[in-house]
């Protein structure tokens, strides 16, 4: 394949770089910020895309955040590429705090009590649910018996409260990101247009000077 690595990256190294990129999360953040500012779209549309991406990180649809962010951005008439990049707000360093905040809010809204065991093993609960889902899927093609009891408990104690509880903090953080992004994007695009115009004028002057010098030489 054209884009396939000549030397495949070891699994442990790939996992380590997922948790901590080679240049660090600060460098990764600045790269995403730089790419987002250069998107060819209006500040409002880009900011709506950012809103969609940040909001999506507060949903429990792990593994589908790109799809959800693109759908929300399209519904809001926002920039879809900005939405995909804004899902960077959810990363291995922030997923647990986001999840705990969403779970607490969800249990508070539903009038239920958050089990401390769920709180302590938040990532483990999702890993177990994924494993059980895969087991039931493979059971279709084998003689193994399906067992949905664990997923039912997971849905009742974790997924549903997370889904409900992520709405309020998701809207809050996404709205803050939107209102911070619009003036910054507008200022950057204005500055960029000014720089491009200045370069164009400099090229025109240089070309005019060159033509003038040729004319005088003749």
Short description:
With 218 residues, the chain is mostly helical.
The major β-sheet equals:
none
User: What's the end-to-end separation, in Å?
Assistant: 58 Å
How many β-strand runs? 0
Overall spatial form? elongated
Proportion of beta-strand residues: under 5%
Order of secondary-structure elements: HHHHHHHHHH
Counting H and I runs of at least 4 residues, what is the number of helices? Answer: 10
Which features characterize this protein?
10 helices; mainly alpha; elongated; disordered N terminus; 218 residues
Descriptive overview:
With about 220 residues, the chain is mainly α. The protein has 10 helices and no strands. The protein has helices spanning about 10-20, 25-35, 45-55, 65-75, 80-85, 95-110, 115-120, 120-140, 150-165, 165-215. Helix 6 (about 95-110) crosses helix 9 (about 150-165). The model is unreliable at about 1-5 (pLDDT under 50).
Topology readout:
Elements: H1 11-19, H2 24-37, H3 43-56, H4 65-75, H5 80-86, H6 95-110, H7 116-120, H8 122-139, H9 149-165, H10 167-217
